[in-house]
Design brief:
The chain has 322 residues and is an alpha/beta fold. It has one domain: Rossmann fold, CATH 3.40.50.12710. Helix content is 33%, strand content 28%. The chain has ten helices and 15 strands. The longest helix has 16 residues. It starts with a helix and ends with a strand. About 2% of the residues have low confidence. The structure holds S-adenosylmethionine.
Length: 322
């Protein structure tokens, strides 16, 4: 069993099956054994994501082009700040170095109190622990996790909490018997923090996700685990050694944001966002600013971004209403 699994097993022995949300929290964020907290190479050849080498600096340069446009539109304020939620290893730090940059990570600083600028979140919301529920006999029932021998399995829990019930009724189509759902209550809390902090400016969220009508395509929910670039559906295997994600519910971010004064301006594919950043000069500046020796590599990065990620990731643009 994995070390994160041992910790969860002790909890199951003490108190019975654990909510999936707890399973995901320990698997990803246990201070010593969580996937995101363990000192090991998650990126690079043996890593589980698109690596920095595959997409940087082109991704950073194109996002910075948009941020520069927003800064100009806002009248170039001197206190313009870029806050990045879940900044990871700080791969965007260079792209945002022209402004005050505040990376927010577990165990580091929280959001500044008053922000004029951009709050940026790339693959942040899909990594937050979620509650899982199944709709059965007219009610949402929590799904828990327990051990059978040394194998992790799903087991039905009691009625979903009132908050989970409310989330699922609000942001999904009317529930149907037997379907699985995820509720990302932490995403709502983060939107509230951003809603309080952002006095003027934009929130840009880049992620995998769905909108309310699209949720019908996922009768078993959207949980995924990733190892070495391969998506796996058994999310309970080897906790702590694999990344776990749930599709972001863009309807939840958009509607909850609106209730906090963050108006959705658009939701588009990442390819659309990146094309809009490069259209003025056909990407010439991005491709050539590293010198002739870099151009071939950068072309490959652009291709990976537009065709590898561009159609699966989406960008939600929300603006603080003034
Ligand atoms: C999938 S990674 C994305 C990292 C980076 N944005 C990127 O695109 O490479 C999600 C990041 O969110 C961070 N994160 C998760 N929960 C968080 C929290 N409660 N506060 C701050 N950061 C958090 C994780 O530590 C992790 O670095």
């Amino acid at each position: 069993m994995t070390p994160a699994g041992e910790i969860l097993a002790a909890e199951v022995r003490r108190g019975g099956p654990v909510p999936f949300r707890r399973f995901m929290e320990v698997a990803l964020y246990h201070p010593e054994h969580g996937y995101y907290r363990r000192p090991r190479e998650r990126f690079g050849r043996e890593g589980d994501f698109f690596t920095a080498e595959q997409i940087q600096p082109v991704f950073g340069l194109l996002v910075a082009t948009h941020v520069r446009r927003l800064w100009a539109q806002m009248g170039r304020p001197a206190d313009f700040t870029v806050v990045e939620l879940g900044a990871g290893r700080g791969e965007m730090a260079e792209a945002f170095s022209g402004w005050r940059y505040v990376p927010v990570e577990i165990g580091s600083n929280g959001l500044p109190e008053a922000v004029c600028g951009v709050v940026f979140a790339n693959e942040f919301f899909d990594a937050l622990p979620v509650d899982v529920a199944v709709f059965s006999q007219g009610a949402f029932r929590e799904q828990r996790v327990t051990l059978e021998g040394d194998r992790w399995i799903w087991t039905p829990g009691g009625a979903a909490s009132a908050q989970v019930d409310d989330y699922l009724r609000r942001y999904f189509p009317p529930p149907e018997e037997g379907r699985w759902y995820e509720a990302n209550l932490d995403a709502l809390r983060w939107m509230e923090r951003v809603g309080h902090a952002l006095r003027e400016g934009w929130m840009l969220t880049i992620d995998y996700g769905l909108t309310r009508p699209e949720a019908v395509r996922f009768p078993r929910g959207t949980l995924m685990s990733y190892q070495r670039h391969t998506a796996r559906e058994d999310v309970l295997e080897r906790p702590g050694e694999r990344d776990l994600t749930a599709h972001v519910n863009f309807t939840a971010l958009s509607e909850h944001g609106a209730s906090l004064g963050l108006r959705t301006e658009r939701l588009e594919t990442l390819a659309q966002t990146l094309l809009a950043a490069g259209e003025e000069d056909q990407f010439a500046a991005v491709l050539t600013s590293g010198g002739a020796g870099q151009e071939a590599r950068r072309r490959l990065q652009l291709k990976t971004l537009l065709f590898g990620m561009g159609e699966t990731f989406r960008v939600l643009w929300q603006r603080r209403e003034s």
